[in-house]
Amino acid sequence: MSRQLADLEILRELEPIAAANVNRHESVATDWNPHDYVPWDRGRDFAGTGGIDWSPEQSQLSDVAKAAMVTNLLTEDNLPSYHRQAAKYFSGDGAWAAWVGRWTAEENRHGIVIRDYLVVARGVDPVALEQARMQHVTNGFAATAEEEARHQTDFLLSVAYVTFQELATRVSHRNTGKACDDPVADRMLQRVAADENLHMIFYRNIASAALDLVPDQALEAVAAVVENFRMPGQGMPNFRRNGVLMAKHGIYDPRQHLDEVVLPTLRKWRIFERGDFTCLGEQRREELAGYLENLERQVIRFEEQRERRIARDERKRDVQAI
């Protein structure tokens, strides 16, 4: 029979793993400074200090790059909510507290550097950006009422979620850098993406240890996250519009979510090769497999619809050019 442990017991048993991974992270993480990644020579005063306020023609970013940069930045801006969530589900002392503190400090740099870039390079309207930040951070990020009702707010679910979310954020940042068509932005977002990858590895290693400790419980958390995954940007202004635009142009789309985030992580955990699940765990694994098969079909439909839209848009441009 698979072990069933409460959160506090799991935290206590996994703390040595957490300590080892905090040490590992600190040994491989690169110290960097946001100011080294910002093109300060492009900067000029705004009207408040006698200069000129922002206007659309000042931006060198495409509509896609603007949408992706704003979405990524507002996601990073909501760090206070993520810190509260982490502090809620992780222990307040020892290795867990050390990790939450380190992770929070590193994540804060991401918001600093992206905002500095956008303001200095006049990539987006800074007034609208600040209004969106105020709205999004005020609303915060937390489990939905449905998730609360399903008890999907415990430690194992939190660790499983941030594993997938950190990897998804890495993909989004990396592709946003390419879409900016600016070597400075690309270099900056490569640096941010590298941090996100190290954060993902920490959480992935903790989840792996949890699968060894309480296989059925950890599998249930992993499956619940995969089947109900939502990006942390949910609820930010224009999130749906920007998300559609990002998916349409390959910044973060369903194929990337499945092939670059979900499946590699499940393979790393050997979810479909493990032999330590009980009958209940085996049944849950079969349900997850069925969900993934259906998700693949949804991805194919999305790709087909996107190809038809692209072809239709090209035909319209050809007609307008005549």
Automatic annotation (TrEMBL):
An example of a Gene Ontology BP annotation on this entry? Answer: fatty acid biosynthetic process
Assembly mode: Homodimer.
Tell me its family. Answer: Belongs to the fatty acid desaturase type 2 family.
Q: Which PANTHER family does the record associate with it?
A: ACYL- ACYL-CARRIER-PROTEIN DESATURASE-RELATED, STEAROYL-[ACYL-CARRIER-PROTEIN] 9-DESATURASE 7, CHLOROPLASTIC
Q: Which Pfam families match?
A: FA_desaturase_2
Manner of cofactor binding, per the entry note: Binds 2 iron ions per subunit.
| Positions with a binding annotation for Fe cation 2 | E107, E166, E196, H199
Coiled coil segments of this chain: 285-312
Where Fe cation 1 binds, per the record, is at E76, E107, H110, E196
GO cellular component terms given for this protein: cytosol
Query: What GO MF terms are annotated?
Result: metal ion binding; stearoyl-[ACP] desaturase activity
Give the highest taxon in the source lineage.
Answer: Bacteria
Query: Which keywords label this protein?
Result: Coiled coil, Fatty acid biosynthesis, Fatty acid metabolism, Iron, Lipid biosynthesis, Lipid metabolism, Metal-binding, Oxidoreductase
Q: What is this protein called?
A: Acyl-ACP desaturase
Name the cofactor(s).
Fe(2+); Fe cation
